[in-house]
């Protein structure tokens, strides 16, 4: 079963959370006719803004990503957990509208965000050239009012020392005809005492404007806040009963970090909330799978406030009264028979263009031309997929003929430039082709020379990376069957929590993504080396 789809093999009328397992945060949910769509953040990974599709809110299939080339966004040089934040997907007047933020910084209270808008007549595109919007804050979202006007919301960033960096939710009119912002922005809502007010979504219902925001930060204090007003510009009254959804104070819950929600109404008038969650390996511990997408049922009586039962994220909720619509399961093995990478794959900081991802020259093989080192942020050569379960593996067969120690190809368990484990083929100083293992923990590299394996004379090498709860292991096959490297590596370094680094109260690094399993080729001398991967098999236990 796909890593992008939760296990829904139980009751046909229930939603099992998370519906998008692994790194799928900040969901924006949308219904167009009988079709539901989820757009999620992708940060430094291509394709940007992943889209999933459902007909019943239970079964979801990946449609790939919207940002497939540098025309839409150039991620060269993008920092870890920078890039594409919190997309917003809407549909109005026969067009899909996608707003996304490109955030460039963390340090000293600066974010350097830039917001963009693209449109398309179909969810599959083609998408327009991006419209450059403001850079005053991130988490931008469109609201299409009943009178035909369109408005852009976002958090309002304040860089000034001593000020609240989350200065509230601002709104400004967007003219669809001229594709420009018009008028002056104004602050709509300054949030609750919980603070860190961001992630706005605005809805018109039951004679009210309903403002949904994320508060409390993106970790354990996260929540979904609801406020309403009779007038678009406020004042907005906060729900007196507290947040619509949160897991704060409930470390017993399987789903933590509940927040950043958006609402959708079914054809029959039922309401649901899509939101992000995390599944820590221990109470309030590391979330190696990253921030995932879940869905909750919402009760919304006429004249009343929306309510999620219990106000906490449930593992299983009643599905809407819609026909069940499963999708074909993703094959476990990708034989690389297609002309393009499948939807399960992502590439780091550069799109999968033919100059380095080659599926044509050698049929049924993925040829990856080597790229930069692990810390290179312009042209790395990593093709990877999200880790969707605590126990899973990626297995491949590689053909690679390195000529020196600057040429490496293999499999990796990866989080970001500073946190990864890598088993690779390379050339030793004595001329042998060898398998080596290297780990990086917040940039501190650990080699394992005692585990070096002689692979001389072996044309095809099997490699496997295994997640086994908090442990990562590697296996290899030189033709005589699988052998395990005798070392247990720490999987929890591949988590949001481990990646975050605060120095003197300022974020020097952040962790917003999740663990990946991937195929990694490095050509540190720029000699034009490549590796051929015959297949890739992903399995979950």
Automatic annotation (TrEMBL):
Organismal lineage: Bacteria, Bacillati, Actinomycetota, Actinomycetes, Micromonosporales
Entry annotation: catalytic residues: 26, 198
InterPro entries found in the cross-reference section: ConA-like_dom_sf, GH43_C2, Glyco_hydro_43, Glyco_hydro_beta-prop_sf, Glycosyl_Hydrlase_43
PANTHER family given in the database record: BETA-XYLOSIDASE (PTHR42812), BETA-XYLOSIDASE-RELATED (PTHR42812:SF12)
Keyword Transport annotated: no
Pfam families membership: GH43_C2 (PF17851), Glyco_hydro_43 (PF04616)
Protein name according to UniProt: Glycoside hydrolase family 43 protein
Claim: Cell cycle is one of the keywords in the record: no
GO molecular function, one term: hydrolase activity, hydrolyzing O-glycosyl compounds
Gene3D superfamilies according to UniProt: 2.60.120.200, Glycosyl hydrolase domain, family 43 (2.115.10.20)
Family the UniProt entry places it in: Belongs to the glycosyl hydrolase 43 family.
Organism expressing this protein natively: Micromonospora orduensis
